[in-house]
Specification:
Elements lengths: L9 E6 L6 H15 L3 E7 L3 H8 L3 E5 L9 H13 L4 E4 L2 H14 L3 E6 L9 H10 L2 E4 L2 H7 L12 E3 L6 H6 L13 E6 L11 H10 L4 E6 L5 H10 L6 E5 L5 H4 L4 E4 L8 H8 L4 E4 L4 H4 L5 E4 L4 H13 L1 H18 L2 H12 L4
Parallel strand pairs: 1-2, 1-4, 2-3, 4-5, 5-6, 6-7, 8-9, 8-11, 9-10, 11-12, 12-13
């Protein structure tokens, strides 16, 4: 498809997270989509971060920085960002973290960037104090969220922070056909008939993997033979492994570390668990559904927007018994697992198809829209 030169724009994505997560995945996929459409795209990322490496490998221009929470006080750093934005004639910038918002937002305002967008992907309230009101009202053009739950969280401290009209909701998109057809190497053989449970994410407090310890103990008491495979790495890794050892769960819980291809784990499992304390948009829930895995997760945040009633169970947060009741039900009803898994795949294909989502994002990000 030919694209008129005058329809092309210049975009910048500023994301200084070192690790890899849902937000970084969104920034890379959106930048890659716009780059493939012929737009000028640059990524400003933390030096040696996973995002910077993957964006470079994708052929996208990367500018490396070292931002901290105090970078807003560094005029030399802000001026260097101003020069980068002006040099690349950036028309729209998308900002990720709070430090990206403050430092990059101010730089973009000075550089005369027309569209300054804060992409909020975390279902957490925003503190309604002076500096945030100044940034949200005087610097940011718009706020883009990935779920209605995330939008509600921003507004939870009142509309004096930012007008609801300034906030738009566009869910994350997934190339469902590509994901379904993506090759994989199972980490475990499903033919051994052991009921296999997958969990995946950064090993940090938000993801709440310690909840799986009492879950495993409860499942053992119920006489269920199972294994829980946990993919990911993070600051809680050693603590979680110690908890497993202290509770004699070495045979039931295994840590796989960081996985380049999460599908290797998902296609090795019978069901998927997500005990997160909050989620902006659960990418991993959608990916698990595309692998036809029924889901058990907490009834929090945006989980109800990603998991349909026909594809999984949402239980009260922090309560082991109802969580385990649903796991046991799926253990005892393999035909229901298959039915719910297929329903989940269809739900994701219908609601989060990348081609439709990325077209909406492209239109949204263009100046003047």
């Amino acid at each position: 498809m030919l694209v008129d030169f005058f329809d092309l724009n210049s975009f910048c994505f500023l994301n200084t997270v070192n690790e890899w997560g849902g937000g970084e995945k969104w920034h890379l996929e959106t930048a890659s989509y716009l780059h493939a459409k012929g737009h000028a795209v640059i990524v400003i990322a933390q030096l040696d971060s996973v995002l910077s490496k993957r964006a470079s490998a994708a052929g996208i221009t990367v500018h490396s920085v070292k931002l901290s929470n105090l970078s807003i006080l560094n005029p030399f750093l802000i001026n260097s960002l101003v020069r980068v934005l002006k040099k690349n004639r950036v028309e729209s910038i998308v900002l990720n973290l709070s430090r990206d918002l403050k430092c990059g937002g101010v730089a973009a305002k000075i550089a005369g960037v027309e569209n300054i967008i804060f992409r909020r992907g975390s279902d957490r309230p925003v503190r309604n104090y002076f500096i945030n009101r100044l940034i949200y009202q005087k610097v940011i053009s718009y706020v883009l969220t990935n779920s209605q739950a995330t939008k509600n969280a921003i507004l939870s401290n009142g509309v004096s922070l930012v007008s609801p009209d300034k906030i738009s909701v566009i869910p994350n998109g997934i190339d469902t056909a590509a994901y379904i057809n993506k090759s994989y190497n199972p980490v475990r053989d499903k033919k051994d008939s052991v009921f296999t449970i997958a969990a995946l994410g950064r090993l940090v407090k938000q993801k709440n993997f310690e909840f799986l310890i009492p879950v495993a103990l409860s499942l053992k008491k119920r006489g269920i033979t199972f294994r829980i495979l946990i993919g990911g790495e993070g600051t809680q890794e050693e603590q979680l492994k110690s908890m497993v050892t202290e509770n004699n769960l070495e045979k039931e819980i295994e840590f796989l570390g960081f996985l380049d291809n999460p599908k290797d784990l998902l296609m090795s499992a019978d069901i998927f668990l997500l005990p997160s304390l909050w989620e902006g948009f659960g990418y991993v829930l959608a990916e698990a559904s595309l692998c036809t895995l029924p889901v058990v997760a907490f009834d929090i945040s945006s989980n109800g927007e990603v998991v349909d009633k026909s594809s999984g169970f949402l239980t009260p947060p922090h309560q082991v018994k109802p969580f385990c009741d649903k796991i046991e039900y799926l253990f005892l009803n393999p035909e229901k697992r298959i039915e719910m898994g297929k329903a989940g795949q269809e739900f994701v294909k219908k609601n989060f198809e990348a081609s439709q989502i990325f077209e909406r994002i492209e239109t949204y990000l263009k100046p003047g829209n």
